[in-house]
Amino acid sequence: MATEIYIVRHGETMFNQLNKVQGWCDSPLTVKGINDLKVTANALSQVRFDNMYSSDLKRAIDTVHLMKDANQVSEIGKIKKLPEFREVFFGSFEGDDIEETWREVALAAGVGPQTDVTKIINQVGIYEFREATKKADPRHLAENKKELDERMVRAIDVLHELTKNEKRVLIVSHGDFIKTLAIKYWNQSDGLHDIIFPNNGSVTRGILRDNGNFEIVDYNVNAEDM
């Protein structure tokens, strides 16, 4: 039985608002973030889910509970938290200014002092961008291509095991993780260049098949348009 996967990006957080790097570090949802999520939750309130899951970071957990509380047609028990669906880890850059971080990554990638992350990725490719992020990190803790790719594959494997008897589920994850999943599993991506960053509260829909194969069929869609 194939499982339909709704992947929701968490709502806007304080670090999003302050333009700070936010991977495994956490900051609370803003009032705007909560209000925007209520729109998403209302749009999905009549969609029947067999289960809901979440990254184990608080901003995702808070988001999934908003989805659960608003849904009128699903009987969801305790939310299972999946660390495999955490945001990308940025190591020593966590909490730093985003533009300053991208400047350091661009220098490590050999493309000069740029702050436009899309231009950096499109010049060197998403995987070299990850390598440059690890190289630029003074402690070299940031996830590189191999580490992140292995975690994405593991995330899909874990979800496949959990959802074998479930037709439709919702999982809350994070912007860069969702984008990197789409670069890998969406047929409208070439697997190398950048794609648009998903909006807070947006829905990305995938199909997880019996054999464990995963594909994304809708990316970064407003819930009202699903």
Task: Give an account of the 3D structure.
There is one protein chain. This protein is of the alpha/beta class and 226 residues long. The chain is 40% helix and 15% strand. It has helices at residues 14-17, 31-43, 58-70, 98-109, 117-124, 126-136, 145-162, 175-185, and strands at 3-9, 51-54, 80-81, 168-173, 203-208, 214-221. Strands 3-2-4-1-5-6 form a 6-stranded mixed β-sheet. Strand 2, helix 3 (58-70) and strand 3 form a beta-alpha-beta unit. The protein starts with a strand and ends in a 5-residue tail after the last strand.
List keywords for this structure.
6 strands; globular; 226 residues; 40% helix; six-stranded mixed sheet; alpha/beta; 8 helices
Shape verdict: globular
- What class, by secondary structure content? alpha/beta
Strand content: 5-15%
Query: Residue share in helices?
Result: 25-40%
Distance between the termini: 22 Å
The averaged pLDDT comes out at: 97
SS element count, helices:
8
Unreliable residue stretches: none
Please list the strands of the largest sheet in the order they lie side by side: 3-2-4-1-5-6
* Total strand segments: 6
Radius of gyration: 17 Å
The largest β sheet comes out as: 6 strands, mixed
Name the helix and strand elements from N-terminus to C-terminus, one letter apiece. Answer: EHHEHEHHHHEHEE
Give a quick summary of the entry.
By secondary structure, the chain is α/β, with parallel strands linked by helices. The protein has 8 helices and 6 strands; from the N terminus they run E-H-H-E-H-E-H-H-H-H-E-H-E-E. Strand 2 (51-54), helix 3 and strand 3 form a beta-alpha-beta unit.
